[in-house]
Design goal:
This protein is 31% helix and 22% strand. It is α/β, with parallel strands linked by helices. The two termini are 20 Å apart.
Length: 109
């Protein structure tokens, strides 16, 4: 899950996609403390990599998750447990060194 006001912060983009192109895990966008319509328009203009986008205008859910700034990326397992939290942009290095190994570990169980 990515938390970001859907304005100046680009989405995760191709770095979170597997070698064949499809996403290696479901991506959920978290529209944090932003207005719904500008967020939708931004995704339409720049592309929407998310399977689902959640809207949190007043930031209450974000506070419950411990969001302190944007962008932040959470890896959540199948039981709904946050397994990793990354503050900052999603880079190819982070994906290769942290995200993909973690996803492999979670898939093994």
């Amino acid at each position: 899950m990515r938390s970001a006001p859907l304005g100046p912060v680009p989405g995760p983009g191709p770095q979170t996609r597997g070698p064949a192109g499809p996403a290696v895990a479901p991506l959920v966008g978290f529209n944090y403390q932003d207005q719904r319509e500008p967020g939708k328009q931004w995704l339409q203009k720049h592309g929407n990599p998310y399977q689902l986008t959640v809207f949190d205008e007043d930031g209450r859910v974000g506070m419950d998750l411990g969001i302190i700034g944007v962008p932040e990326t959470f890896v959540i397992d199948k039981q709904g447990v946050i397994r990793h939290k990354h503050a900052g942009p999603v880079t190819p290095e982070w994906v290769q060194q942290t995200l993909l190994p973690l996803l492999k570990e979670l898939q093994r169980g």
